[in-house]
Every structure is written in C-alpha cells, then in structure tokens.
Amino acid sequence: MTDRTSRRAAHWSMALLTTTMLTAVAGPALAQTGDAQLEELVVTAQKRSENLQDVPISIQAIGSDRLDALQVSDTNDYVRFMPSVTAPTGAPGFSNFYMRGVASGENNNHSGPLPSVGVYLDEQPVTTITGPLDVHVYDIARVEVLAGPQGTLYGASSQAGTIRIITNKPSTQGFEAMYDLEVNSVAHGDIGYAAEGMINQPLGDRAAVRLVAWAQHDAGYIDNVPGSFVFPTGNIRVNNASQVENDYNEVDIYGARAALKIDLDDNWTVTPALMGQRTEADGGFAADPTVGDLKVRRYYPEGSDDKWAQAALTIEGKVANFDILYAGAHMRRWIDTDSDYSDYSYFYDVTAGYGAYTTDNAGNFINTSQYIQGRDYFKKTSHEFRIASPAENRFKVVAGLFYQKQTHNIEQRYRIDNLQDLIEVPGWPDTLWLTKQLRTDRDYAAFVDGTFDITDKFAITGGVRFFKYKNSLEGFFGFDRDFSSRTGVAACFNPTAIVKGGPCTNVDKTTKGDGRTYRINATYKVTDDHMVYATLSTGFRPGGINRRGTLPPYDADFLKNREVGWKTSWLENRLRWNGAIFSEKWDDYQFSFLGANGLTEIRNGGKAKMKGIESDISWLVTDGFTLNGGMAYTDAELNQDYRPSPTSPIEAPKGISLPVTAKFKGNLTARYEWTWNDMDAHVQGALVHTGSAFPDLRTADRAVIGKLPASTTFDFAIGVDSGSWRVEAYAKNLFDDDGQNDRFVQCAASVCSRVYTIPIRPRTIGLKFGQTF
Q1: Who contacts 320 (Cβ-Cβ below 8 Å, separation ≥6)?
Q2: Cβ of 182: how many Cβ atoms within 10 Å?
Q3: Can you tell me the distance from the alpha carbon of 350 to that of 233, in angstroms, rounded to the nearest whole number?
Q4: Which residues is 338 bridged to in the sheet?
Q5: Percentage helix, strand, coil, to 5, in the chain?
Q6: How far, in Å, CA of 422 to CA of 442, rounded?
Q7: What is the distance between the alpha carbons of residues 548 and 593, in angstroms, rounded to a whole number?
Q8: Of the candidates 228, 174, 70, the residue with the CA atom closest to the CA atom of residue 684
Q9: In terms of DSSP bridges, do strands 117-121 and 764-772 run parallel, antiparallel, or are they unpaired?
Q10: 3-state DSSP assignment of residue 50
Q11: CA 22, CA 245: separation in Å to the nearest integer?
C-alpha cells in the first residue's frame, strides 16, 4: 500500500470536519433571513437568452463568480463539477468528453470516430476531428452543459450533449481592467505559477474592445526513473539514462483573446474576435504502478506542442421584429507530438519473437525500440445563419442553416534509429511505418425549432434538423514493400502521392449519408417557480473511413433519448432544485480499438442502453452561507452481444457495463462569506466523488487493463476582497487522493501487458493575488 493510498481512510472524516466547521461559522448568521436571493443565471442554450429556470432541458451552468471560486482554469477543472460529463485525459489539450454513459471506450486516435459531445466557444463549434480545444478559462461569463442529444439546434457532434463556453463581451459602459497572479506547489512535484489579465476599453458610445491574455506554468510531478532491458537478438541492452528526470511532465500554456464590438445602430451589432493558445508539454502524463508511485520508465523524448488560433465573426440584428444572427469562424490547429513506443518493440519483438528488423545496413544488431513523431495540422471553417421570432409571442420559432468543413493532415512517423535502408519507407530515413493522410469531414444542415404556448402554463416544442455529411480519407499508410508484401507500398494502387510527402497512395475512399434528428418537448408550469417537462429527442454521429483501406467504412450511429425533468425554486428563490430522469438507446454504436499491427479500427457494434438520473441544487442557507451540489447516477450497458464480425466470438456480452462513465458522480460545495474590516471575506470547501469504471468494453481487455478506482477529492479556499484588490489561498485535492483519469496499454492488450495509469493531479497548494480597476 502506497503512502497516498494509506491516507484515503482519513479523507472523508477530515472533509466532513471542514464542512462542519463551515456550518458552525455560519451558525451566528442563521437568524439573518434578509431579502437576499440566489442570483438569476441567464443562458442561451436554446439560441435565445432565457432564465436557466425557464429552459426545459437538462442543463447545468457555472457562472463567472463560481468559476473563479472553484479555481477553474481548464477542461479538467470544470468537468469535475459537471456530474453528467466524463473526460478521460491523456495530456493537456487531449481530452474527449462523454455524457450520460454514451461511450464505447474509444482510444481517441487521430483516425477514430468524431466526438459524440460538441463543444462551442460562444456561437462557434471548436470540436476538431480528434477532440475539442482545451480553452483556458479566464474572463469567462459561464460554462453551460446541455445533457442529452442536442441534434436539432447543435448538430452532428452533439449526439450525447453539448458544452458551451461563453466569453465576456466588450462593453461600452466604461473602462474595466483586472489582473491575477498565482504561485502554487504540487505535492511530489515542483512549483507552478500563472499570470492573467483583462482590459475592456470603450471606443466611443458605439464600440468597445476587450483584450484578455494569460501565461501559466504547471509543475511536473511524474518522475522518469532509470531502467533498462535486453533485446535477445544481439544481446543489446537498452537504457534510458539520457531521459531520466524528476518532475518531467511540466506544461507551459499561454494565449490571448481579443474581441471588438461595434454597434452599427440601435439594431445591428458586429463582433469580430480572435483567440489563440499554445500548450507546450514536456514528458508524458502516464505512470507505471509497477515502477512506483508517480513514476515511469521512458526511453525516448516525449512531449507535445499544441498551437491553435481561431478568427470568429458574429453579426446580430433585427429585421422587423425578427432577430437575425450570423456566426462564422475559421480555426487552424498544429499539434507536434513525440512519443516513446518501445513497448511495442519489446512485446512484439522480445516477447513474441518477431524480430524482423534487427540489423543495420552492415548486418550489425541494433536497438529496435520505436518512437513516434506526429505532425498534425487541422483546419476548420463553420458558418451558421439563423432567425428567431420574438420570444414574447405565443408561437415562437428558431430556424437556421449550418455548414462546416474540417480537415486533418495526418503525419505519424514510427522511427527506429539506424534502420537498414532496405525496409525504410521510401523518402523517410529510419522510418519503419508512415501514415501520411488527409481526412476531410463536411457537414450540412437546416433546422427549425418552434414552441407554441397552448396556455399560460402549458407549452409544446417541436424541432427537426435535416443533415447531410460527406467524409473522406486519402493518402498513404504502412510499411515499405520489402518489409511487407501485402500492406503499405505493396498495396498502393496509385504511384502518385495524393497527399504531399507520401511515397504513393493506398487509401482513397469517401462515405456520405443524410437523415434527420428531432426533438419533441412538453412543458408545464405548475407555478411560476415550479416547472416539469418531458422530452423525446434523437442525436446522430456521422460515419467515416477506416485508415486500413481493406476495411469497409463505418456507418453513422444514432441515439434516442426519453427524459422527464423538473426546474424548481423554493423559499422565495433561496433554494433551487433541478433534475432529470432519462432513458436512452444507442444503435449501431461506433467502436474504435487497436487491431492488427496496432492500427485503429472502427466498427459498428449493435445496441446499448443508458438510464439514470441527474440533479443539482443551490441553497442560500443564510445571507452569507451557500451550498451547491450536483450528482448523476448512470446505468449504461450493452443491449446486444458485441462481435467484431458475425462469425467472430463474443468479445463483450449483452448486459456488460459500458466503459468510461462511473455509475455515480457527485459534488458538494459549501461557501461562507462575511464582512471583515470593511472587506469581503470567504471560506470554501468542495467535495468531489467519482465512482469506479472500466476504460475498455471487451472482457479480455478488462482483464489486462483493469478498472479505474473510485476517487474522492476535497478542495479548500480562504480569501479576502477589498473591492480593488483580492488575495486567496487554496488547496486542490487537499488530502492527495491517488485517483486516475485513465488506464491503457500501448498496443493490443492481447500482446502488450504493461498497464499505464494517468493519475489525477496531486495535492496543489497555491496563493492568488489580483486587482480590479
């Protein structure tokens, strides 16, 4: 048992003690009834501004003040407090979201399926083929999580739900500025720091500009420790002496956002915006439990350099009494990665005894350990035009058109130093395997969503989205002809390289489809403060092309959702309780896995089903003491045996739980605020629990990879705010829980048996100082 594990028994008692202390501090104020109420939160989930309590869908939202209070700065931070969302993370910038258990255990490879959860930055989608952008959270108005299919208003990558990051917009009301400085220390690791700032400057009565910038250094906490092994062919000993380093997974993040708002007249506003971010990560974020706590042995350099920039334009106005909106964006993303792939060589060549490429040109034995150099380039352009009738009308409608095109230029180079020329991919020295492909995904849609108020209390909503998609993959993948007579160069049908850099072309396929998704909703307001609703909705995800050209394309998969929910306010709006009960069916689910030669394959499975309940509560106990909490219980399982093909044996039986999503996830935050020496003071505790889950669907792989353990973390913060300056001390994961974000093996689990874990960030204690002008 590790030291971190031995402390877990104390977590709950200490967390409960802290919560009790918070309640005790609030005790003298219990008699203060006052007139204070919970702040109204306005959201735009249905493409129009509405009070959260009036929106008849399951939506959780975290506003600006609470984002700051919870120390939210990235994807991992806000996902912790969204019970219906799961986001396995391998490294910063490489998360994929899953909602309500709609997950088959995808390996998130560059040639895998599109994400099932859409992510939007304001009005523009920022979900790339390989996953969403990890947008730094600073000067953000709110984060909205829309659970369940949002296929009518948000489209293809919103099959299971949608996450929306809404920025603060330029304001003509006056000059504003602020900055925040932070320093922190990570247990078992090093020192981190950050600087963030914002300026809002009016440019006359009808224009304003808002500038935001940030720079952040995250300390490393994983040690790359000494190690060696021997290749039996040639008796070559391999060691990692040149790569040994403590706290080797450091991350530097810096970026900026600029927006200009121009009121052309009283009805029309133009808002161009530009945002860019760079995330440089050294080392890897996986640990090897057999080596030690937060330790690993890697033999080649690892890291990533993720750069992206997006230009966006929003035009809003009125024609007669109809609201008009155009939202367009163009985004580019560059990702350079270096990965140690020596496990593949070790388990295939040493354990399985393949050893097919063991000498150099002179016949001398070589170290056949592999490493991967990835150079990926994305482009994405999206356009949306919509029109909305007045919200006060008895019948109101939102209708629009949508188009997006995204491309992914894939370069994955599997290298072995001193490889003999005979088996190198032509034109690529020391390269055993090359992927040089261009993937293009296009989506077209027209949608309409209308609501009719039958009475003052009862309303019916119906929506439909007609869609078309066209996805293609072209280029080269594989070995040199002299290494394989059936794949790679030997399989090329066109000697010309369609994708620049490839030796020839052995993949050139296209798949397309069309259809519709729909939503039907009935809403009844029992009182002005109590609403119930029922929804039937569907979502889809486009099909695509397998990288291995001999495999057929995979088809679109579809999700049907049945849901009943409630939105309620009590005690004169001092208590809010919302929730939903859902049942979903997932047909022809897309399942990606590592097949032969460690290549990603995507196949359509059969049927799966999900059911559960999600709920959140906000309670202003006294004028200074607030409780916020949320929970989700999800029961997701296969409704049909999974077989890779009709003649294959069963790899996952009917009734087996779906991977990735825990059955229970919940959080509770207690915050007390009071006045101290003419300043606003606060103390806060936040408890987050996530249950256990398997990372893979198949029973054989589960036996090798194991199960993600349950995790419970506790955060604490205390600070003061004078109005012009503020200071806060905080601790994340105060009791240093040793939870895991993910577990994996480097190649097929039937061959590679070394299991790596992605640990959650250890205890981090920090101090923040900021000023507002």
Answers
A1: none
A2: 20
A3: 8
A4: 303, 373
A5: 10, 55, 40
A6: 40
A7: 13
A8: 70
A9: unpaired
A10: strand
A11: 42
Spell out the alpha helix ranges (H) of 422-523.
none
* CA separation for the pair 386, 147 (Å, rounded): 23
Contact 65, 673 (CB under 8 A): no
In this structure, the number of other CB atoms found within 10 A of the CB of residue 508 comes to 16
- 743 by Cβ neighbours in 10 Å (0-12 / 13-18 / 19+) ranks as buried
- What is the Cα–Cα distance from 559 to 664, expressed in whole angstroms? 22
Structure tokens belonging to residue 278: 């760079």
The three-class DSSP label of residue 14 is helix
At 772 the three-state DSSP class reads strand
Q: Which amino acid is at 324?
A: I
SS3 for 132-189 is: ECCCCCCCEEEEEEEECCCCCCCCHHHCCEEEEEEECCCCCCCCEEEEEEEEEEECCC
The DSSP annotation for 213-267 comes to EEEEEEPP--EE---EEEETTTTEEEE-GGG-BTT---EEEEEEEEEEEEE-SSS
Q: CB under 8 Å, gap of 24 or more: what pairs does 71-77 form? A: 71/715, 71/717, 71/730, 71/732, 71/766, 72/137, 72/143, 73/136, 73/137, 73/138, 73/194, 73/216, 74/134, 74/136, 74/137, 75/132, 75/134, 75/135, 76/741, 76/761, 77/137
Q: Are 403 and 382 in contact (CB under 8 A)?
A: yes
Do the bridges between strand 117-121 and strand 161-167 make them parallel or antiparallel, or are there none, so unpaired?
Answer: parallel
- Distance, CA of 400 to CA of 141 (rounded, Å): 25
Residue among 5, 121, 140 at smallest CA distance from 68: 140
* Rounded Cα–Cα distance for residues 546 and 592 (Å): 10
- The residue type found at 535 is T
Question: What average pLDDT values come out for the chain (773 residues) when binned by 10 residues?
Answer: 48 43 41 71 88 93 94 91 91 87 76 87 88 91 94 83 95 96 97 98 96 97 93 82 95 97 95 97 94 95 96 96 96 95 78 66 88 95 95 94 95 93 93 94 95 96 95 93 87 94 94 94 96 96 83 91 97 96 96 74 92 97 96 97 88 95 97 94 98 94 94 97 96 96 85 91 97 95
SS3 assignment, position 19: helix
Cα separations in angstroms, 646 against 547, 604, 650: 21, 12, 9
Strands 395-415 and 371-388, by their bridges, are: antiparallel
Residue with token string 């609201």: 323
pLDDT of 628: 97
Instruction: Give 9's contacts (C-beta < 8 A, 6+ positions apart).
Output: none
- pLDDT reported for residue 106: 65
Terminal CA-to-CA distance of the chain, rounded, Å?
51
Do residues 290 and 266 touch, judged by C-beta distance below 8 A? Answer: no
CA-to-CA distance for 415 and 434, rounded, in angstroms?
Answer: 9
Integer Cα distance of 318 and 265 in angstroms = 11
Find how far residue 299's CA is from the centre of its chain: 29
* Dist CA 601 CA 648 (whole Å): 15
Rounded distance, CA 705 to CA 655, Å?
20
Structure token digits, residue 554: 């995979």
Nearest CA to 587 among 483, 515, 496?
Answer: 515
Total Cβ atoms within 10 A of residue 405? 15
Whether the predicted model's global pTM rises above the 0.85 cut? yes
3-class secondary-structure state, position 343:
helix
